[in-house]
Amino acid sequence: MSIAIFATERSDILQRHAAAIRGSTRTRFFTIATVVFILGLFLYGLTTLETTLWRVLAGFGNLGSFVVLMLPPDPGSWAKALIFVQALFETIAIAFLGTVLAAILALPLGFIAARNVVANRIVHFLARRSLDTIRGVDALIWALIWINVVGLGPFAGMLAIMTADFGAFGKLYSEAIEAADRKAVEGIASVGGGKSHEIRFGLLPQVLPVIASQVLYFIESNTRSSTIIGIVGAGGIGLYLAETIRTLEWQQTSFLILLILVAVSAIDFLSSKLRFAIIGKRAV
């Protein structure tokens, strides 16, 4: 099926939609200004960081030297290997417990921060800003804070992961709840269901697969984050990683990195299996 457009009709269409086709002067100006600003910011960043092509090439050469020093990965002894593996499981425990606690505690606040659940603008504003405030502080900073509160060790690391993820989960939950289909909620309300029924039977079945997927991803991500907070004394394998780097034990460093990579890959594999079990392969 073809549609023929006469010259007069074509001219009329071009005249009526000239701004959309050619773009207005104002739109062009803002586009050019945005591109120039981003380019200027990029060049300013390169100048501030004293980035040069020679330094980049020399850095790659140094990186190759470090890789040679790291091979083959060697813990040094079976006793150290056992200590490193125990520290790895401690790191995984920090990530798992911190993520699960944050996911549970953030669920009520996620509903409060959702516009389609709580219509009061003041409550919604306070909930969102509270989540932004908590989320704006990095897990490493929370680790330093909790170390001063509860002391050194994995308990401070778990609290740091929990606090940092609390704000992130609250925001993600509220956005998932706001994106849920209103038809199910309206159907429950039409048969006399209360607010709790709307949330329990209308919203939760829709958002739980999304929430589960987010929690599984954060467990994997926090396994990497837990290695960083361990460097400041919050437990886990990060303490040993920092120590081996400081003492130039590069083969032990590569062994620790290999352990972390294996753990993250295994958690990613298990997470994908669990996610498919929850949402089903038809959803992919």
Give a structural overview.
The chain is mainly alpha-helical. Helices cover 80% and strands 0% of the residues. The protein contains 12 helices and no strands. The protein has helices at 7-16, 18-22, 25-48, 53-70, 78-112, 121-135, 139-150, 154-178, 182-190, 195-229, 238-246, 250-279. The radius of gyration is 26 Å and the shape is extended. It starts with 6 loop residues before the first helix and ends in a 5-residue tail after the last helix. The model has no long low-confidence stretch (mean pLDDT 79).
Topology at a glance:
Elements: H1 7-16, H2 18-22, H3 25-48, H4 53-70, H5 78-112, H6 121-135, H7 139-150, H8 154-178, H9 182-190, H10 195-229, H11 238-246, H12 250-279
Shape: extended
In round numbers, the mean pLDDT is: 79
Distance between the termini: 35 Å
Strand content: under 5%
**For the CA atoms, what is the radius of gyration?**
26 Å
Number of strands: 0
Poorly predicted runs are none
Q: Give the oligomeric state of the chains in this entry, treating copies of one chain as homo and distinct chains as hetero.
A: single chain
Report helical residue fraction: over 70%
Number of continuous helical runs: 12
Q: Assign the structural class, choosing from mainly alpha, mainly beta, alpha/beta, alpha+beta, or little secondary structure.
A: mainly alpha
Major sheet? none
